[in-house]
Structures are given as structure tokens and as C-alpha cells.
Amino acid sequence: MMAPPKKDNVFRALDRKLGAVAEFTMRQYRTKLSTWVILGVGFIAIFIVVLFYVDSMQQEIEAIDNDGDSADWDGDGYPTGQERIYGTDPNNPDSHPGTFTPPIAPDAPEKWINEDDFDWDLTASGDTTVGYDDDGDCRLSDSTQSQKDYNRNNVECDIILNYDEMRGEWSEPYSDRLVDEDPDEEKYAKEAIHRAFLLAIGKMGFVFLLGIFLPLFLATGLIREEMDNSTIHFMLAKPIARRDIFLGRIVGYLGIVWPYIIGMGVTVGIISGFAGPGDSLFRFADLGMWMAIIFATMLATLVYGMLFCALGTLWKRGIILALPFAAWELGMAILSFNAPTSSILRFSVIGWSLNIIDAASLVVWPNMNLFISMGMWGGGHGAGGFWDNSLEGAGALSAFASDTGLGISPIATIVVSTLVLLFQAAVLWLVGSAIFKGKEIE
Amino acid sequence: MMPDLQQVGEGQTQQWAPKITAPVVLLENVSKTYGKIHALSEITLALSGGVTGILGANGAGKSTLFNLLMGKLKPSSGSIKLFGTDPWKNPAPYARVGFVPEHEKMHDWMTAHGFVSLFARLNGLTREEAKSEADRVLNFVGLTDVAHKQLGRYSKGMRQRVKIAHALVNDPELIVLDEPLQGCDPLARTTIMNVIRELGKMGRTVLVSSHILHEIERITEQIVILHNGRLLALGNLHAIREKMDNIPHTISIGCENPKELAKDIINNDAVYGISFPSGDRLQIQTHNLNAVHRELPTLIVANGHKVSSIDNPDDDLESILNYLTGGLAR
């Protein structure tokens, strides 16, 4: 007669049983067509967005000559900007650097487009001044002292940045005339769109779409389908506690979902790393973002998995119970973009998950807020009309970027959010297995 | 439904050991009600060792009883103990229990071997131990050569045997089989009956439910009869039968020459009617089953009749129930 396992510690015995349930669940899900349909739909949804992103990265963004100095006003062949720095009269066809000895050759007009790009120190943390007048139209022109120091800080040709401690954001830059006034639209827009894409696909694509819909379809039936098929009887007749069955099923479901999320994250990360803007071939700096996106999505699928599995155990039509939760989470996701500090976000899963991504974006891209307000300022006279000087991409980025809302450092935010999500998962596991334990099954 | 948040059962962290003195199965005044419907009422039962048949018509409470034993239902009142432990609160006794559910659905995508070794691992075996254990039990039920075929391709009888095999993992002391013979072909029936008898001989406590008496009769003498959720009778099947002797019975005899046999048998006082349902079959109506059975063999041998079978085609269970309930069963 086979004796029950010898003096086996609890962990090992649990590991055997738990491992068996988890392995069984993974094999079961691999044989089901519906699993592959759901994973396939998630793949298609994400990759349609990726296609739009790759397309936008290929598009050229029109370079705008904000200050108009590429034009040759007097028809002498020299762009106005060039005439300005040599001190000749841009309005007099006889006055141009060609009359100098030795004569200076005229510049191509393109050289005077986007010639005064941002010279900003994005590591700034408090009130500071930035900017350098690359094209010299502030420093060298014969304008008056009060024009050169328009913002009256006794520094000629600079931009004042004010950090509002109370609101935790940057005030609009206060610039001297013609400093950094002709930025490189394409350079800014590509960077901004790239960041906006990462935030958008991370928050809405991964954490919301994958994070909610994979558990909704894959976790709700973890216990319920076995009960409906009455195959649960085999498992219940074995010496394994129901909470371990519950946990084992969740672990098995995660064994399918987590590798999928990691695979998707790595794939999209590689694509965006190569397609994204930058001097190097691959944007290694984004790796931190992708790690955060994958990590946040994994935690979200864990918590939602526990929740939906518990709801499925509770009622035959658990998916109906799960839908209000999904709707609530969508509302919270939208709220987190507009009001990241609302305390109601703390009563959601997605609020904490998105915190992780937002916090990571602040670590990976220091001074995200300053970068956004730089684009919103757009050189002071942009193409967007009199009131809106913003550069392309700045609006999108400011829509998808938001504060972490906890008022603590990004790293601390990640740690706290992770602990909260793990706590939520543990509570839902206890609740779910208590529901399962109290369930009479025939 | 309120979850049982108390979870008063013995902690799982301690190595569970059966209480030696406790009966394998002990039910005390167990009732299970659904609203006003009494699925089981006031069942008291103690079983240890040997094969016991649980008899009852459909809806008599057999499955409810088993579900209570297997900790899937919580008794409305009374207490259930498996090896001295309440199965609703603690799954530990199942290390010593094997259960064959009546449900037909299985994981069709698994092989028999995979299925059995999965549940062996749930008994706490390692992967390797589970594999060799699966080989052993599949051999015991005679499925070694098809062990690596998918369950979806199995016949009903083979699936039943896989279910029995999965229950025999880890050599349990108590084996509970819910309608194991239902829907099986004759060959599978014989195999399963042999397996059950074998288990009984090995000293295991076996509970088999059925609604067909002669199935049980071929396996065991010890029976529990359930009727409308009540325990109607408990004990030796023959003892119960004896008491029924003076109610009308039919005996069906398969033989080469029924008419010749009828001539010899009509002289017996206990026989009051004879009929010929087919050319090779004779039916006798009697008030005294025992008397006829006592005389039949001598009669057959003395006159040289060639008899292929003797059985009681009456729905035995129904007649027993009728007798025990005084005709209220119908």
C-alpha cells in the first residue's frame, strides 16, 4: 500500500497540488479554441494601433519658418536672417553680405528655417532661465535693451521658467523677443508623438484593453466552467482545499496570460524602439517604460483575474457581474487622464496600475511636464493661430501624460502602487475562495 | 449563499492522520433539505469495510448522500464524518477516499494516463510518482494498452473504467462509486463488477450506488435501501428477500424444451401460473420463491433438462420497495 507522502513540508505538498492544477489549467486553455481567438483579437487590436503609430513616424512634418527670416525680402539673394546677423539692411537690395571683402556667399533659405531650436535644460527643477538665441536675431539686432530683456530679469535673450509649487506644474514660459522662436517642429512632434503613443498604448491598450478583457473572457470561467461541466467533481474529491484549487486555476491562467503580455510588450517595444525618433538606431531609453507597461499589465491581469474568477464562482452569469466593474474601470481610466489626483481613483484597480506607468514615464523621461509646456509654448508664435502656438504632438502628449496623483516620488509611487495591487489581489483571492468554499456543488 | 468564513475544520498545516477508532463513514441524523423538499432525512449510518450497495430509485437521495460524503454539499442538520473528520470543513480525508462521480463529462482532450496522473498529483504525489501510479491503476482496470489515447475517443465503458482508475490512485481505503454501471456495455459491466469485488476482497470499504438490484446483487450482499430520502432498510440482501417470499414472484427459465419442464414443475404447490414468452423460455408465477428455488435444481437434474439461465425478471428493486413500504412506493 502506498503511504501518503512522507514528512513533507506544507510548501512542497502545496506546490505539488498547486502546480498540478496550474499545469492542468494551462494545458486546458491551450486546447481551447476560444483562448486563441481572444488572444488573437487582442493581438490585432494592439497592432492596428501600432500600424497607425509607425505610419505617423514615417510622415514628414512640415517645417514652419515661424519667424519668417528665411524669406529674402529685398530680393538680393540673401535670406533676411543672414542679413540680420551681418548687420546689413534686409530691406535694401544693395545692402547685403556679398558686398563685404571677402564677399560672403548667400545661404540657402532652408538654413533659416527651424534655425532657432529649443535650447532648454530639461533637468530644471525650479525657477530658472533657459534658451539661447541661435540665430542671433535677439542678441545682434539693433533692438533696444528693453526689447532684448523683455522679461526684465536683467539677462538678455533668455526665457524664464517658473515652477508653481502649489499646482505642481510649470507656468507658461516668459520669453524675451525672438529667443528659441523657430523650433524644429518635426523633431519635437516626433518625440512628443512617440511618447504619447507609448503612454496611450501602455495605458489604454495594455492596462485597460488587455488588462480587463483578457481576464473578463479567460478568468471568469476558471471555476464556473468546471462547475457547469461538472468536471469539478473530480478535483473536489481530492485532498486539496478549495482555496488552493482557486489559486491554482489563477496561476494557470496567468501562465497563459503573462507570457502573452510579455511577448506583446517586447514585440511592440522593439517595433517602437526602431521606428521611434532619435539619433541612435534603437531607443534604449524607452526600455524602462516598456518594463513598467508590462509590469502594470501583469498586475492588472492578476487583480482582475482574481475578481472575475470570484464573480464567476459566485453566479452562473458572472460575466454580467463583471461588466459593471469593467465599466467602472473604464470611467476611472478616463478620469485618471483628467483628474489624476482624485481620491476616487484609489477605489479602482486601473488607477493604481496607471500610476505605475505614469511614474515610470517621469523616471524615464525626466521633466515630462516641462517638455509638454515647451511644446505648448511652441516658440511663442506657432502655426496654430494667435492663441494656440503649440507644436504638433504636444496636445496629444499632454492628454495621455498625467501626474501620478500620490504626491510622492516616482519610485515610491511604483512601490506603493505595486503593494496596493498585490494587496487587492490577496483580498480578492480570500473573498473568491471563501465564495467557492461556501458553494454547494451538485 | 453565505460562504463558510469560519472554516472550523482541522488546520491543513498539520499532517492529517485518520482517527483509527472512527468508522470509515459515519452519518448521524443527517438531513438535507432544499426549501420544503427533503432530499435526505435523518440518515444514520456507520460503515467500515466491505462492499455496500446503496439502492434506490432515481431521486431517492443516493447522489445527495454521496455529495454530502464528498463534501460538496453541506448537511442541513446532523453530522458527517469520514475517518472522524467533517468533509465539508476539511478535505484532508480525501487522501484516503476515491470517488467516481456519476457525471459523464470528462476532460476529453486528455489521455487516460494524463487524466489519472493529474489527479494522482492532487493526492500529493510528485510527477514521477503520479506517472507510475497511473500505470498501476490503469493496469488494474485493464486499460494499459489504450492508456495514451484521448478520452474523447473512449467508449462509455472505458470512460467509466478511467474514472474508477482515477479514484483508485494512492490506494484509498474508501471508494465511493456513483452509478458506475450506468450505460455500460456488458463487457465493461463485467470488468467493473470484477474490479469492485476485487476491491472488497482487498478489505477496502466500497460504496456502490445503483437503481438496479441485480447489478448490486452480483457484487454484494450488504445493501442500504434509500427511498424518498429515507433509509428504508440496511443489511443483508438475502435476509430482506426472505421476508418477501410470500409475495408474488416471477421466475424466468431459459431452456431447450420449456413445455417438458413446465409439465414437471406444475406439480409444485408453490407454483400457481405458467407462461411461455418465447420458444426457449418458461415463466413461473409463485408465492414462495424459496420453495421453488429449493426444488428446481433437483427437478432439472432428475429429468435431464438443459437449462441456460434462471433469473427473476421482475424489477426486483421495485418489488422490494413495494414490500418494504407496504405498497406505498408506487
Name a few traits of the molecule.
heterodimer, A: 442 residues, mainly alpha, 3 domains, three-stranded antiparallel beta sheet, two-stranded antiparallel ribbon, 14 helices, 5 strands, 3% strand, elongated, B: 330 residues, alpha/beta, Rossmann fold, VC0802-like, 2 domains, four-stranded antiparallel beta sheet, 13 strands, 32% helix, globular
Describe the structure.
The complex is a heterodimer of chains A (442) and B (330). Chain A is 56% helix and 3% strand. In chain A, helix 1 crosses helix 8, helix 5 runs antiparallel to helix 11 and helix 6 runs parallel beside helix 9. The mean pLDDT of chain A is 87. Chain A is mainly alpha-helical and 442 residues long. In chain A, the strands form two sheets. A three-stranded antiparallel beta sheet of chain A has the order 1-2-5, with no helix packed on it. Chain A has a two-stranded antiparallel ribbon with strand order 3-4. Chain A folds into three domains: 305 residues, no CATH class; 33 residues, no CATH class; 61 residues, no CATH class. The longest helix of chain A is centred in the middle third of the chain and has 34 residues. In chain B, 32% of the residues lie in helices and 26% in strands. In chain B, helix 2 runs parallel beside helix 4. Chain B has a six-stranded mixed beta sheet, with helices on both faces. In chain B, strands 11-12-10-13 form a four-stranded antiparallel beta sheet, with helices on one face. In chain B, strand 11 and strand 12 form a beta hairpin. Chain B is an alpha/beta fold and 330 residues long. Chain B has two domains: 216 residues, P-loop containing nucleotide triphosphate hydrolases (Rossmann fold); 82 residues, 2-Layer Sandwich (VC0802-like), CATH 3.30.2130. The interface between A and B is large, with 39 and 46 residues.
